[in-house]
Amino acid sequence: LPFLSDRITNRLLTALPRLGLSCFGLSLVSGIILAFVYRPVGNVFQNVEEITTRIPYGWFFRQFHYASGQMFVILMFAHTLEHFLKRRYRTYSSREWAVLILSLCLCFFVLFTGFILKGDKEGIFAGRIFMNLLLSIPIGGGVLSRVFIVPGESFFFLPYLYHCMILPFLIGYLIRKHVREWMPGQGSFFWATMGIFVYALLIDPFMDIPPDAPVNAVKGPWFFLGIQTLLKFLPPLWGGLLIPGFLVGCLFLLPLAGPFLQRFLHYLLVASLLLGTYISL
Ligand code: HEM
User: Fold this and answer.
1) What is each CA distance from 139 to 142, 143, 144, in whole angstroms?
2) Are 280 and 225 in contact (CB under 8 A)?
3) Which helix (H) or strand (E) holds 44?
4) Which residue, by CA, sits nearest to atom 9 of ligand 1?
5) DSSP string covering 198-235, please?
6) Could you tell me the distance, in angstroms and rounded to a whole number, from the CA of residue 252 to the centre of ligand 1?
7) What whole-number distance in Å separates Cα of residue 88 and Cα of residue 83?
8) Are 167 and 159 spatial neighbours (Cβ–Cβ below 8 Å)?
């Protein structure tokens, strides 16, 4: 970081992964508490509204879970970005690099399934867009979509299963080496808990839009806005799967490419990231 001294930059870069892992722990604990009262079938929106307004401290645990989950993924993203910008893919084995990128993709998928689980208009739209994207795959799209989400009564059930069980377990397994290396000490755990606690206490939750409310445009989560913009101009298969899939594929391939191709892919990814950030803002 050019505007900070080396000592402060190094302290920051070692503190962030520890805070990120603390947030991972906090999101697991708050998620388990929410799972006691959340029902992924029937009228999910009404259930979530009951958690927010009727169940004692339900609003607090929702905010706590939201903030810890978001902070975990943002810090995990910052950590991966640091590796990418320092071109660590030149020294890492392709397996180590692939594990890092796969974990990051799974982290964003947990956030996405969490967004669906809100059960409001935005969540339902995100779920439907996801289902239609998978259905747009010419061969096997129908089968693949049923692995992740099915229409009707059980619409929220599979995202719930992925969000609460499969993905946290997979992420924990993939980053287990990191957990040992960056085990949060009492200090980082304390500061992460305090920060999230104060946020949950003081910041009002976002308004959940009822599924039948008449609204003109529905906004996706922040990390989906780049894809949402592509989908306005391109067919679903291209905007929603092939172009994002190509960029993620380039990220995976970095350690295997020769020096010239590596340079080219690096700048292509930096340009796409800047463009995506500009669109999202
Ligand atoms: C990697 C760990 C996790 C992350 C990053 C994460 C993140 C999120 C996010 C961002 C939301 C949306 C909240 C909102 O917008 O209001 C959410 C919802 C939810 N999560 Fe998680 N979560 C994680 C793990 C878990 C676990 C382990 C459980 C349960 C065992 C769980 C249960 C839930 C439930 C029931 C909801 C829906 C209720 C609501 O919207 O408040 N989460 N999660």
Assistant:
1) 8, 9, 9
2) yes
3) helix 44-53
4) 114
5) HHHHHSPPPPPPPTT---S-----GGGHHHHHHHHHS-
6) 27
7) 5
8) no
pLDDT digits (tens, 9 = 90+) for 252-265: 999 999 999 999 99
Per the CB < 8 A criterion, the answer to whether 67 and 84 are in contact is: no
73-99 per-position pLDDT tens digit: 999 999 999 999 999 999 989 999 999
pTM as predicted: 0.92
Kindly state the tokens that stand for 116: 């669906």
Largest interatomic CA distance in the chain: 60
Q: How far is the CA of 171 from the centre of ligand 1 (A)?
A: 14
Angle, vertex CA 273, rays to CA 220 and CA 104, nearest 5:
70
Closest ligand 1 atom to residue 205 Cα is 16
- In the structure encoding, which two tokens stand for residue 226, read together? 């780049």
